[in-house]
Amino acid sequence: MNAMNPMAQAWLEAAGDLGIRVVHPFSFTNRLGVRATTVGVHLPDFGAPAGTLLTCRFDPDDIDEAADETDFFQAALSPHWYEPYRREIFVDALNDLGWFGPADATPPWFRGGLRRHGGTDGANPP
User: Fold this and answer.
1) Could you give the C-alpha distances from 87 to 15, 68, 83, in angstroms and in order?
2) What single DSSP character describes residue 60?
3) Torsions phi, psi of 34, nearest 5?
4) What is the C-alpha to C-alpha distance for residues 68 and 46, in angstroms, rounded to an integer?
5) Are 54 and 40 within 8 A, CB to CB?
6) Considering the chain, what is the average pLDDT of its residues?
7) In this model, does residue 120 exceed pLDDT 90?
8) What's the pTM?
9) How many CB atoms lie within 10 A of CB 35?
10) Is residue 90 pLDDT above 50, yes or no?
11) Are 112 and 98 in contact (CB under 8 A)?
């Protein structure tokens, strides 16, 4: 599989447009010492203190099992919604994941929960 799959390409486009960190490809070692690489992406500042691991349909079958033994928030997103990049859909997803990055680096468009999951609740007004 070409390392630049449509899902990763969409998230890398989101990184440029939204000013967020996106790591692709992403390698990790789980608590059992298993090393794995996703051709999905890692969002270091969203979803959990360790970030979010977004796997994709191009990953090996055992990637989810390897990721289960980590502290990442994990998700597999539908290509229907997340390929190609559409700003409003990605912003909604990131707001739902919550911001776990440095407080002074919260993106100006972000309206989700700070250090928690959940969308707009008035806690982070524009």
Assistant:
1) 10, 29, 11
2) -
3) -80, 130
4) 17
5) yes
6) 90
7) no
8) 0.90
9) 9
10) yes
11) yes
pLDDT digits 0-9 by tens, 4-50: 799 999 999 999 999 999 999 999 999 999 999 999 999 999 999 99
Give the type of residue at 106. T
122, exposed or middle or buried, with CB in 10 Å at 0-12, 13-18, 19+? exposed
Long-range contacts at 13-17 (CB < 8 A, ≥ 24 apart):
13/84, 13/85, 14/85, 14/87, 14/90, 17/85, 17/87
| Cβ neighbourhood burial of 33 (10 Å; 0-12, 13-18, 19+) | exposed
Cβ neighbour number for residue 88 with a 10 Å cutoff:
7
Q: Where are the alpha helices (DSSP H) in 50-97?
A: 63-68, 79-82, 87-97
Provide the pairing of β-strand 52-55 with 73-76.
Answer: parallel
